[in-house]
Specification:
Blueprint: H1 7-13, H2 15-25, H3 27-34, H4 41-54, E1 60-64, H5 66-72, E2 96-102, E3 106-113, E4 116-126, E5 134-144, E6 149-150, H6 153-156, H7 160-176, E7 179-184, E8 189-190, E9 198-199, E10 207-212, E11 217-221, E12 225-226, E13 229-235, E14 241-247, E15 250-251, E16 254-258
Parallel strand pairs: 1-2, 1-10
Antiparallel strand pairs: 2-3, 3-4, 4-5, 5-6, 7-10, 8-9, 11-16, 12-15, 13-14
Helix pairs in contact: 2-3
Length: 265
């Protein structure tokens, strides 16, 4: 994959794109701010949080391999009675900003700052009306870590539920699992055409490839087989440390074949 052809290239380098996203999300507030008009305290906070989430300052970029995507799908998590997942597993994280790039021309940005966990999902698809152009769709939300409350726009967004699960599972795998990290410097490339090649066309942004170190056991059976899966378990003193573990598969009336090699990019 050539990163210059990915929507992430514009997101990470084009400041005008950030302004477009701000205007699409908070049009009147942004225009009033640019005109020098006074905003309410709530509006100022919302605009600052949004801008801090999507701007290019102090950012890191990661490429999520298809190996990780497959493993993330094996993570079994259940929402709480509130309908949301247990985001307290990330309460130990320090302030940071990361962009996770997917091969399907989409990305997830997370920004932790001031007690808020903010995230943005962005996807580009070929336009049905304008040939040769892309249509960009994005969603922006934030979570107050002390109360586990989501921003008000979360409820109004019909895509919110699926998006929360997608982001939650990815972050569980990234922060709580044992992964292989491969840094590809600007102008460099990694991998082969057969296995999947990544070409870093950024001028000054290194890309870290995230790959899985998990050696997974699989089952083939003529009867009923339950495949292995990942789960979050609490460990340490007082069970306060979240950790992702692999639950071995079990079989009925069949046989088990263990994986031979760790998956690679």
């Amino acid at each position: 994959m050539i990163l210059k052809n990915h929507i992430a290239y514009r997101f990470l380098t084009d400041e005008s794109f950030t302004v477009e996203m701000l205007r699409a999300h908070m049009p009147s507030q942004l225009d009033r701010f640019l005109d020098g008009d006074e905003l309410t305290e709530v509006e100022q906070s919302q605009l600052w949080t949004l801008n801090n989430t999507i701007c290019a300052i102090s950012q890191e970029a990661f490429y999520i391999t298809d190996t990780i995507v497959d493993k993330v799908d094996m993570l079994k998590v259940k929402p709480k009675e509130s309908g949301h997942y247990d985001w307290s597993v990330f309460s130990h994280l320090k302030d940071q900003k990361k962009t996770f790039i997917y091969s399907d021309n989409s990305l997830i940005r997370i920004a932790i700052s001031g007690g808020f966990l903010c995230f943005c999902w962005l996807e580009a698809k070929p336009s049905k009306e304008h040939k040769g152009q892309d249509e960009v769709d994005f969603h922006l939300f934030n979570l107050k870590q002390s109360t586990q409350e989501f921003s008000k726009n979360w409820v109004a967004d019909s895509y919110a539920g699926k998006l929360e699960e997608k982001i939650y599972k990815l972050l569980c795998f990234f922060y709580l699992a044992d992964n292989e990290l491969i840094i590809v410097s600007p102008g460099q490339k990694y991998g082969t055409r057969k296995e999947g090649k990544l070409i870093n066309t950024f001028k000054d942004i290194p890309i870290t490839i995230v790959n899985s170190n998990w050696n997974i056991t699989s089952i083939r059976t003529e009867g009923f087989g339950v495949r292995g899966h990942f789960a979050i378990r609490w460990s340490g003193e007082g069970r306060t440390i979240p950790k992702m573990v692999f639950i071995e598969p079990f079989k009925k009336n069949g046989y088990m074949r263990r994986a031979k090699n760790v998956d690679h990019v």
